[in-house]
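Hi all, long-time lurker, first post. I run a small reading group and we've been trying to get comfortable going from sequence to structure in the token notation. Rather than ask abstract questions, I figured I'd post a concrete chain and ask someone more experienced to write out its structure so we can walk through it together at our next meeting. Sequence below, copied exactly:
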Amino acid sequence: MSGTVLHVEHVHLPCARRSRDLGLTLVLATLGLPAVAVECDANLGAEAFASKCAACHSLEAGQHMTGPSLHELAGRRAGTVSGFNFSAAMSESGIVWSSTSLEAFLTSPQTYVRGTVMPFGGVKNATERAAIVCYLVTS
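-- Answer (accepted) --
Happy to help. Here is the structure in token form:
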């Protein structure tokens, strides 16, 4: 079940981690985002982010690189973070970043947002992609 995204009403939390994970679930529910299953692998996501994303993206607020900062990405409308010059395609996409939209975008950025200028072919490995989504949503 690693990397699986579940809706809030379906999350089963082991007793030892219940308080922390319930807090995360409530935060995600408040943002209108599906809860990430406890089994998602944020550690693998951190490693995959470092090897596939960190050359162009930062997780620090306002620290833009070739790509925009991904700080507090979940729940944000695409193309709206201040201080970065987005393509018209991204700014006008209407996407709100969630685990579902991130999964689709990271599969093939140019297919998901026609006209995006992000020079990246996507994350083809589904396990790695799900781990990056987990990492971004929980970071």
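A couple of things your group might point at:
The first helix runs from residue 18 to 30.
The two ends are 20 Å apart (CA to CA).
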